[in-house]
């Protein structure tokens, strides 16, 4: 029994020590020399401090009651045992002090401590009440018209401040003052409190001095930054290592072209969201099984581009790394970051964008202008604007982010509303080109498609092709030959990139069967001297008729498997035919066998072309400090436009001052009124130009219609992604009310759209003649 009460006493003592230690940290800062268990009287009176005191009081009372019971029980037991062992009690206690009396004394001491704790507790409540009373007038939500949401936010904090631990991390403790301090100093919904020290909140960190970016040619440090452990990262690193010499040569060429142009070094975070475990990372396990590699090709080239251009780079492929680099406070993601964002730019994808929104709190809205989203198929403005998309049926799983559409960066230049990021294909030197010319087999074809499902149902086309050419495939298989691949096809299985390149260098034809859409392989084939044969789609493929595009934030129609190859390269390198017409298909094969082509790579898909393009974006695109849009219908004192001599379109007047800060430069603007039912994307291409959405604000006025001699009997401003536009019946002119809805994409037979076009550099459609 003596062991039992010793055990209880020991547990109680250590519990008391623990609580006292907690109390010492919460009630006040200890002075040097204080015992760890010293209870200071300068009680703050916060709920947590009072809670600890209550726990101590309850624990001491419980100990006293149990020890009193044990004492009575022990008294009888010990007396009985003492009769058989007279020296027991004398060994344990001083003479004259029995066990019962000693335990009762301890219990009394505990009771006295409990009383004192209760007194401290009451004192703390009184003190808290006085502090609250004294600051009540200072801690009421102010009715300041500059901060209309303040009182509502305080109400929300009262009810929900415990919903996320991040609020307590920033000092919120349930008091009115803590709510207002948080809402004025961490968030920005309430005005600063006059009795607070404003020095810390008003002193924004000084911007670091600008540093010039210097081209890099050694990529070994980049390979270290990329990390390891995932098959996708291993693939990307191999690609980067293989292209190191080409990147170095491209950097040398671009440096010579730019001369002494100053380039700001940016601090850049690259977060590859689709490779994080939280997003499922479905790509890494499929790298070695014929899965899609286009995204990894592009990301590898983006990393190389940013690094070679000389920028500071941080790479993350996990949510934990992302949170650490951003400065995300502990909790559920409702609070802002703990520090100013240390990055000038963030490159990510839709998965990463979602992760940032979930964990950055209000900071996401503050810093989203710095984000660039790698988006293979593009995001059109009608899908990007949340309210408009919801009201007009454009809402999808991926859109509605309310970003500037130029922040989305595509794999091919198919959506001028977005920025064209691209990737690179390996460039051959003259010696390699000569070897290819001499080593081509005129009757050898390679099929585009590593997954067996792509071959399903293609026996008819393969049978026709087999009459003229030896057919090769690179279809993944583990043990048995895929049944979808006919026996007359020589299947090499999945090939490493260098071996695949060698196969293309021997082949005459690279043939696609309609899928995958818009991948890098056709450009690689053309760069290695192949002719690319692809199917024409009738009707065109889109989200309306094909499951693959359903849910993607675009209404774009694909008239072939690879529209860029068809429209920007074309014959003799690219042939697009109707596969359902067997005679046309067979005639094309015969014609291709007679056609001689040299290896061809568009400049924009070379290492130098990508470096040039991304350099221009980084130095000129600024979505954070963009000037406010001109109100619809606002008329400048002097119109910058003149009607072209042939009276077909508007041009920027030579004597007009160029719009300051505009990029591309405003003098490259050419404005056309499209025919009814024609999108601006197509209307500009009809004139050998590119639609430039950043020029829409210049045209969003009645003056532009008048200069084009368009009769506007009425002019209205509305939210519509087709405006500015002219409606022939009723002679109505419509202006754009929402700048985020300016859109090159979109058409209606009801409207003649007013379209801003620009010129472009040969081989570099993303940049105008004077954009560098």
From TrEMBL:
<dbReference type="Pfam" id="PF15024">
    <property type="entry name" value="Glyco_transf_18"/>
</dbReference>
<keyword id="KW-1133">Transmembrane helix</keyword>
<keyword id="KW-0732">Signal</keyword>
<keyword id="KW-0328">Glycosyltransferase</keyword>
<protein>
    <recommendedName>
        <fullName>alpha-1,6-mannosyl-glycoprotein 6-beta-N-acetylglucosaminyltransferase</fullName>
        <ecNumber>2.4.1.155</ecNumber>
    </recommendedName>
</protein>
<keyword id="KW-0325">Glycoprotein</keyword>
<keyword id="KW-0472">Membrane</keyword>
<keyword id="KW-0735">Signal-anchor</keyword>
<keyword id="KW-0333">Golgi apparatus</keyword>
<comment type="pathway">
    <text>Protein modification; protein glycosylation.</text>
</comment>
<feature type="domain" description="Glycosyltransferase family 18 catalytic">
    <location>
        <begin position="166"/>
        <end position="757"/>
    </location>
</feature>
<keyword id="KW-0812">Transmembrane</keyword>
<comment type="similarity">
    <text>Belongs to the glycosyltransferase 18 family.</text>
</comment>
<dbReference type="InterPro" id="IPR026116">
    <property type="entry name" value="GT18_cat"/>
</dbReference>
<dbReference type="InterPro" id="IPR052105">
    <property type="entry name" value="MGAT5_Glycosyltransferase"/>
</dbReference>
<feature type="signal peptide">
    <location>
        <begin position="1"/>
        <end position="24"/>
    </location>
</feature>
<keyword id="KW-0808">Transferase</keyword>
């Amino acid at each position: 029994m003596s062991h039992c009460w010793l055990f209880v006493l020991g547990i109680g003592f250590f519990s008391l020590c623990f609580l006292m230690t907690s109390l010492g940290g919460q009630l006040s800062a200890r002075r040097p020399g204080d015992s760890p268990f010293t209870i200071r009287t300068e009680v703050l009176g916060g709920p947590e401090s009072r809670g600890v005191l209550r726990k101590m009081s309850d624990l001491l009372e419980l100990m006293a009651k149990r020890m009193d019971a044990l004492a009575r029980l022990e008294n009888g037991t010990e007396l009985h045992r003492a009769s058989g062992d007279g020296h027991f009690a004398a060994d344990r206690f001083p003479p004259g002090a029995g066990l019962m009396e000693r335990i009762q004394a301890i219990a009394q001491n505990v009771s006295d401590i409990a009383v004192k704790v209760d007194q401290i507790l009451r004192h703390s409540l009184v003190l808290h009440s006085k502090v609250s009373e004294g600051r009540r007038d200072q801690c009421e939500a102010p009715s300041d018209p500059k901060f209309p949401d303040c009182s509502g936010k305080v109400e929300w904090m009262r009810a929900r401040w415990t919903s996320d631990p991040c609020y307590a991390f920033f000092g919120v403790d349930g008091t009115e003052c803590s709510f207002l301090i948080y809402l004025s100093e961490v968030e920005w919904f309430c005005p600063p409190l006059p009795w607070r020290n404003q020095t810390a909140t008003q002193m924004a960190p000084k911007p670091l001095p600008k540093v010039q970016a210097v081209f890099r040619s050694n990529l070994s440090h980049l390979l270290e930054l990329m990390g390891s452990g995932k098959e996708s990262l291993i693939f990307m690193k191999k690609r980067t290592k293989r292209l190191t010499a080409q990147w170095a040569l491209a950097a040398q060429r671009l440096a010579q072209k730019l001369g002494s142009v100053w380039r700001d070094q940016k601090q850049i975070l690259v977060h590859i969201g689709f490779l994080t475990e939280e997003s499922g990372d479905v790509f890494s396990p499929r790298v070695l099984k014929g899965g899609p590699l286009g995204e990894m090709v592009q990301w590898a080239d983006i990393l190389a581009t940013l690094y070679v251009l000389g920028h500071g780079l941080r790479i993350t492929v996990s949510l934990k790394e992302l949170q650490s680099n951003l400065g995300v406070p502990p909790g559920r993601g409702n609070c802002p970051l703990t520090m100013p964002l240390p990055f000038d730019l963030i490159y990510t994808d839709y998965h990463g964008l979602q992760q940032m929104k979930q964990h950055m709190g209000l900071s996401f809205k503050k810093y989203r202008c710095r984000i660039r989203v790698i988006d293979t198929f593009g995001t059109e403005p009608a899908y990007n604007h949340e309210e408009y998309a919801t009201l007009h049926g454009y809402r999808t799983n991926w859109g509605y982010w309310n970003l500037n559409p130029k922040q989305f960066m595509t794999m091919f230049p198919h959506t001028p509303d977005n920025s064209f990021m691209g990737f690179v294909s390996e460039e051959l030197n003259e010696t390699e080109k000569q070897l290819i010319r001499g080593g081509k087999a005129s009757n050898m074809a390679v099929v585009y498609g590593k997954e067996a499902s792509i071959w399903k149902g293609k026996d008819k086309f393969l049978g026709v092709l087999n009459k003229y050419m030896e057919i090769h495939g690179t279809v993944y298989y583990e043990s048995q030959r895929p049944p979808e691949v006919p026996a007359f096809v020589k299947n090499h299985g999945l090939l490493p990139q260098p071996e695949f390149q060698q196969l293309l260098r021997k082949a005459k034809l690279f043939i696609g069967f309609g899928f995958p859409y818009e991948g890098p392989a056709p450009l690689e084939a053309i760069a290695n001297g192949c002719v690319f044969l692809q199917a024409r789609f009738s009707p065109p493929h889109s989200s309306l008729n094909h499951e693959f595009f359903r849910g993607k934030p675009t209404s774009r129609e694909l008239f072939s498997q690879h529209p860029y190859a068809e429209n920007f390269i074309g014959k003799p390198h690219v042939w697009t035919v109707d596969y359902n017409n067997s005679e046309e298909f067979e005639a094309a094969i015969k014609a291709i066998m007679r056609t001689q082509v040299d290896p061809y790579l568009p400049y924009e898909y070379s290492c130098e072309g990508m470096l040039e393009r991304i350099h221009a974006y980084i130095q000129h695109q600024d979505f954070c400090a963009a000037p406010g849009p001109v109100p619809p219908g606002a008329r400048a004192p002097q119109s910058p436009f003149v009607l072209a001599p042939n009276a077909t379109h508007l041009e920027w007047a030579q004597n007009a001052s160029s719009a300051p800060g505009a990029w591309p430069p405003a003098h490259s603007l050419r404005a056309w009124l499209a025919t009814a039912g024609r999108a601006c994307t197509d209307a500009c291409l009809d004139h050998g130009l590119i639609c430039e959405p950043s020029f829409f604000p210049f045209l969003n006025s009645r003056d532009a219609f008048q200069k084009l001699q368009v009769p506007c009997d009425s002019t209205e401003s509305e939210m519509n992604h087709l405006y500015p536009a002219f409606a022939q019946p009723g002679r109505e002119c419509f202006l754009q009310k929402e700048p985020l809805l300016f859109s090159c994409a979109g058409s209606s037979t009801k409207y003649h759209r007013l379209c801003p076009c620009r010129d472009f550099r040969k081989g570099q459609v993303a940049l105008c003649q004077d954009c560098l």
